[in-house]
Amino acid sequence: MQEKLVEFANLLRENGVRVSLAETLDAFGASEITGLGEKEAFRAALRSTMIKRASELPVFEELFELYFSGLGEIIKQASQAVQQALSMSDQDFQKFLDEVEEMLKKEGGKLSELARQLLQNNSGQLEKAIREAARAVKLSNIERTIEENYFARALARQLGLDRLEQEIKQLRDDLQKLDMSAAMRARMEEYLDRRLKALDDIIKRYVRMEREKREVQAREQQHLNRLAEKSFYYLSEDEIRQMNEAVQKLAQRLKNVIAVRRKRDKRGRFDVKRTLRQNLEYGGVPFKLRFEQRKKEKPQVVILCDVSDSVRNASRFMLEFVYSLQDLYSRVRSFIFVSDIGEVTEHFRTNDVREALDIALKGDIINVYAHSNFGHAFRSFVDDYIGALNKRTTVIVLGDARNNYNLPHDWCLREIKQRAKRLIWLNPESRNTWGFGDSEMDRYAVHCDLVEECRNLNQLYHVVDQLVPRS
């Protein structure tokens, strides 16, 4: 059972559900208490130990049905179909299986293990043999419907279906020599034929089931990809909820990438001069390698987010993304603006990210229903907060730069750039619209180190990746 639970945990991970080693161990303990007899109790035990987010429940439920109602259930259904075809009750069928076992003791001395397991209705051993064969042919690599026939044939070859057919044929011939009634002989022959066909059906259904497992993963990935490419402005309420989960997953992926990158670059570059000096006593042979000592420096980030209606979703996800990664920075300070500007850093420090977002965007800190005035907001920031910037600070402005024909005060960005390490502007509008109408993007862009279009989650991910030092 533990082997199956480990396999199920891996399947969940492949489909985007994070299951830790500790949670898998908890699942071991819970399953020992519930057992497999009560399916719903067993399902509840795994759900409570492996699932942390409501959004992961649909994936869990679908995979649970596919996995635990999988091969074992297919074999059970195939056996029931044979029983029904023979028009036998449970008691009659069990008695008939006893007779088959007696017959095999007399005539089945040279039968393969697969033939014995199949004819004696040994479901557990048959399932084990099929799973081992599936691993041998790498059935887990199946992706498309068109591959089902190929993998079904490969699985049949690995199991030795050709030899099994010959064994069943030989058994049919041997039945003619046995002392039994004609009716019994006919029933035995029908049983042998139906068992052989049942195995072929089991193989095909199992291959189809494995392909459907992969489809769950593919659908989840395709959905995430579509969501990540959709403009923030056009997201529905349901998609915003889904996007929150996507932000967390992408943030975790970025953390993992950065952790690997920092570990790889930890030693710094190879220092030729120090290496030669350290190895003079060995005649210059480099037994002792020396590397440059890298200065570890986490950046500081200041975020200025426009929260007017047209870009509010983009600001929401920008704040959530950066605060999900805040342990990669030495400090994060956040400001929101429409015309006035207000700091929301403390709300993120003392509340959950999503609670802090709700507080920031509901209008208690600034008037979020005012007309956009970037110039006024920037001038207020320079007057009140310019002292927060230094040469370790990256300033990120997220907004569409539509200023309603007010004074742009672009000199404020020049002041910010002189104080900070970098000034980055992210615009959730298409680049083709910049500078037209009341857009002041052309004036603001000349003072920025980097100006990027940021209309969807993929673009946001790319930009945030650039904010983290490479070592």
Summarize the structure.
The protein has about 475 residues and is of the alpha/beta class.
In words, what does this structure look like?
The protein has helices spanning 2-14, 21-34, 39-50, 57-68, 71-85, 90-107, 113-119, 123-136, 148-159, 161-175, 182-229, 237-264, 272-278, 312-324, 345-350, 353-361, 374-385, 411-419, 441-445, 457-466; strands spanning 300-306, 331-337, 341-343, 393-398, 422-427, 450-453. The protein has 471 residues and is α/β, with parallel strands linked by helices. The two termini are 44 Å apart. The chain has three domains: 2-69; 72-225, no CATH class; 244-264 and 297-466, Rossmann fold (3-Layer(aba) Sandwich), CATH 3.40.50.410. The mean pLDDT is 81. Helices cover 59% and strands 7% of the residues. It is built from 20 helices and six strands. Helix 5 crosses helix 8 and helix 12 runs parallel beside helix 14 (312-324). Strands 3-2-1-4-5-6 form a six-stranded mixed beta sheet, with helices on both faces. 29% of the residues are buried. The radius of gyration is 33 Å and the shape is elongated.
CATH fold field value of the largest domain: Rossmann fold
- Which band does the percent of strand residues land in? 5-15%
CATH superfamily of the largest domain: von Willebrand factor, type A domain
**How much helix, percentage-wise, in residues?**
55-70%
Number of strands: 6
Q: Give me the number of helical elements.
A: 20
| pLDDT averaged residue by residue | 81
> Rounded to an integer, what's the Rg over CA atoms?
33 Å
Q: Strand-and-helix sequence, N→C?
A: HHHHHHHHHHHHHEHEEHHHEHEHEH
How many angstroms does the end-to-end distance come to? 44 Å
Number of domains: 3
How are the strands of the biggest sheet laid out side by side? 3-2-1-4-5-6
Per the principal axes of the C-alpha atoms, what is the gross shape?
elongated
CATH class descriptor of the largest domain: Alpha Beta
SSE-based structural type: alpha/beta
* Major sheet details: 6 strands, mixed
Are there runs of 5+ residues with pLDDT below 50, and where? none
CATH architecture of the largest domain: 3-Layer(aba) Sandwich
